Amino acid sequence: MLYRVPAFIVFVGKVTLLEFMKIAAHDRPQTSLARRLDRQACIFTAFLAACALCCLFAPQLARAQAAPSAAHLLIYSIDVEGGQSTLLVGPSGESLLVDAGWPGNNGRDAERILAAMHDAGIKRIDHVLITHYHIDHAGGVPELVSHVEVGEFLDHGENREDSADTRHNYAAYLRAIAGHRRRIVHPGDTIAIDGLSVVVLTADGEHIAAVPGIAPAPNPWCATEHAWPDDPTENARSAGILVTFGKFKFLDLGDLTGQKEVALVCPNNPIGTIDLYLVTHHGMDWSNARAIVNAIHPRAAIMNNGAHKAGKPAAWQIVHDSPGLIDLWQLHTAEDADAAHNSPEALIANPKGDGDGHALKVVALPDGGFSVTNTRTGQTRNYPRK
Ligand SMILES: [Zn+2]
User: Fold this and answer.
1) Neighbours of 300 (CB within 10 A)
2) Rounded to the nearest whole angstrom, what is the distance from the C-alpha of residue 270 to the centroid of ligand 1?
3) Ligand 1 mean position to 286 CA, how many Å?
4) 141 and 24 together in one domain
5) 255 alpha carbon to ligand 1 midpoint, in Å?
6) β-strands 149-155, 181-184 pairing
7) How far is the CA of 66 from the centre of ligand 1 (A)?
8) Which protein residues have a CB closer than 5 Å to ligand 1 (ion)?
9) Residue range(s) defining the domain that contains residue 60
10) Residues 180 and 229 grouped into a single domain
11) What are φ and ψ of residue 230, in 5° steps?
């Protein structure tokens, strides 16, 4: 950084130099009065120089300390009408898209992803994680790759769901990503993004036992948790991630269902507590076991439901009642639920029906503070640093 040196500093500097030259060379045999006057002149000019330096640099230092950090993590919960598409953009601009929404609808979901990318100021997506091969998550990949440059695809590996629909989805996914780098992730793997820690917690039905830096702790909510049925679908194989940015933590477990959720956090919780929870499985009541929701203790939650997709009252109530929760945001009004199982309209991105496509935008800071903006209203709610 270059600073322009004001003229008065040069003047003060010359005087100081002259004083020292006079004392050192010409005026060595001086009277005591002259020596005292020279000493006083020297002290005075040094004082002036110090004051000038303070005036010059103090405002710069004050600004450096007071300025908010430009480094932030952006998270967009993109409205794909009851599917998932969540865009994360780290402080360096490196990006991770979790799922790509549905196919069809004239490329609607790819357009909405592009709109979020435009808002974030990025032109490509570095990493795309496909949580599982259901059509509301993987179905949008062919449209995505026809519009957006992607660095790599990450997924849990082979489809293991024995259904014609999911076999079809998986085949379409493989065709779409041909020629791209593909990496199969396992619990404990990391996704390298500058400035963030992204740890894979679950994948292909397996889960992590401990996250580096987090001591697993006994989970008191396991004792009262009920048994959950076995789930042979792709949901149970969802790749789930914990994203850490300084003190801020975000959890996205895709559509992981109850039995696997409980296995992840019982008897010990390896996740600790988080700040923002992407409500698992769009708020389906096959997911969101109380033992995991209460243990992770989110401060805010975003439910990526559709107008008539998920957003089930039982799951809504568990998330709503979890200790420490301040706000439960929704991408849509759950129109099949009553008003008592929907959040106030200010917290809903799309209150009436399908089609509006408003996203929820999160800005997180490394001190743990974050905000959520409803892009329909432009209103923002802030959650303080920790
Ligand atoms: Zn889903």
Assistant:
1) 22
2) 24
3) 12
4) no
5) 6
6) parallel
7) 43
8) 136, 255
9) 7-66
10) yes
11) -65, 145
As given in the structure block, the two tokens for residue 37 are: 């006057």
pLDDT in tens, the chain (386 residues): 323 333 333 333 333 333 333 333 333 334 443 444 355 544 444 444 443 443 344 433 333 333 344 599 999 999 999 999 999 999 999 999 999 999 999 999 999 999 999 999 999 999 999 999 999 999 999 999 999 999 999 999 999 999 999 999 999 999 999 999 999 999 999 999 999 999 999 999 999 999 999 999 999 999 999 999 999 999 999 999 999 999 999 999 999 999 999 999 999 999 999 999 999 999 999 999 999 999 999 999 999 999 999 999 999 999 999 999 999 999 999 999 999 999 999 999 999 987 789 999 999 999 999 999 999 999 999 999 98
Query: How many angstroms is it from 328 CA to the middle of ligand 1?
Result: 19
Ligand 1 midpoint to CA 13 (Å): 71
Q: Residue 134 Cα, ligand 1 centroid: separation in angstroms?
A: 7
Q: How far is the CA of 352 from the centre of ligand 1 (A)?
A: 21
Q: Evaluate whether residue 2 is within a structural domain.
A: no
Which segments of the chain are extended strands (E)?
Answer: 73-77, 86-89, 95-98, 124-129, 149-155, 181-184, 197-203, 206-207, 217-218, 240-245, 248-252, 268-269, 276-278, 300-303, 327-332, 348-350, 360-364, 370-374, 380-383
Q: Which residue is associated with the tokens 């149970």?
A: 236
Q: Within 10 A of 149 (CB to CB), how many other CB atoms are there?
A: 10
CA–CA separation, 310 and 307 (whole Å)? 8
CA of 64 to the centre of ligand 1 (A): 45
Does one domain contain both 170 and 42?
Answer: no
Per the structure, how many domains does the chain have? 2
* Whether residues 26 and 162 fall in one domain: no
**Centroid of ligand 1 to alpha carbon of 83 (angstroms):** 5
18, 40, 66 - which closes a domain: 66
